[in-house]
Amino acid sequence: MSRPRPDRIIAFGIVAIVIAVLPLLLPSYLSFELTYVAAYAIAILGLTILTGYNGQISLGHGAFLAVGGYTLAILATRAGVPYWCTIPVAALICFVIGIGIGLAALRLEGAYLALATFALAVSVPSLLKRFSSFTGGSGGLILTPASPPAIFHDVDSERWLYYCVWALAGAIFIATSYLLRGRLGRALRALRDNHTAAVSFGINPYYYKTLAFGWSAAYAGVAGAIVAVATAFVSPDVYNLTLSTTLLIGLVLGGIETMWGALAGGLVVEFLPLWAQKINSGAPAIVQGVALIVVMLVMPSGIAGTILRFLRARRGHDVDTTPPAVRAEAVPLSVSASVPSD
Questions:
Q1: pTM
Q2: pLDDT at position 3, please?
């Protein structure tokens, strides 16, 4: 396990301070919007693990958000379970489902895997409508808005939820960074860059690919539970195919190879449609498409990836701007799959 560099610790500290101070400077409704940013950042972080680190494509992560949101809603409305107890349950259920999907997708790659997860995103809303006795059908379920404990009576509910969600997101990001810097992260990257060489070095592709799917799905379940709490409502129509594609767009625009890209992607997913709607009610899809094309042409590493490369270049580090797929083809077999020991 490599130790985090001092500059990374400083960067995490600066971001944490900014996040802690923002609600004191911004109106409460903007704090509420930033709560959604944290939820989407967690979901995109799961996609970063699955796609950026392991090379598997998913067009169905909106389905895992639906499972997470409905798990929280059903437990809270039917059984009276507190919200904070339902979030781990949502993560666990999504993890198990993700493992199952990962096992089924072991023989699928590229477009075939994308189509399989596409089917998942399409089918889940219909299933939620079918079992109306639990899910409320097309009408969904209404939740009690989250409110702070009596000891925090001076804090409004929007800021209270903001701090709770961002504290959870911070813990998830720190834990993920720790895991990805170790043997697990190196194994995932080795399988992404050169599957054959990784297997020859003793890496079990079935274990790591399935684990990546379950891990990513668990984060999506947490994000879905957070969105359900913030919205105080769940409905099958909220978790349509557009949500899955929007998360994937946020991943690409933010930066597929870095965890910071998940934060940038969360901002894009939440605020780009809101900004586009001010131009025209039908503009969000057009703006997202144009933004995706522009970023791919101008910043192929995404927003966060480009910023990080610029900062490294300013410090005098060598910067390789070659896309990862091209680098994998150009590197010799024995080198591209090497996994250093801890």
A1: 0.87
A2: 65
